[in-house]
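[#protein-structures] MJ: dropping STAS domain-containing protein here for a structure pass
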Amino acid sequence: MGGPAPAEPGRAALEVSPLPGRCGIRARGEISALTRPSWEQALSELVRRHAGVSYVELSDVAFVDVAGVTALAVTAMKLPDGRVVVENPPPQLPRVLEMFWPGLDRIEVAL
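AK: finished. structure tokens for STAS domain-containing protein:
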């Protein structure tokens, strides 16, 4: 699922890999305009593999922009059933979710 974005000096990078032992992905780096294609590709793959509960582990993500949170929210709304559990996100992610998608029960944030 997605690979690291090209590592160039002064440019953001994002690496996304499957979570071992459960349905989900782990991201490392930044989720921004520069890395959004990799993020959206990883989320599309997550939808294809979804089985009731999918996990998105973000403890190694330093920053996620509003468009990155939007991609996550839209992905959760596309799921046929179940939910996405977002683990250890950067602090702006739950704030943006609450601001733009209050009550979106398809996403659970586990801090």
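MJ: nice. The two ends are 24 Å apart (CA to CA).
AK: one more thing. The longest strand covers residues 53-64.
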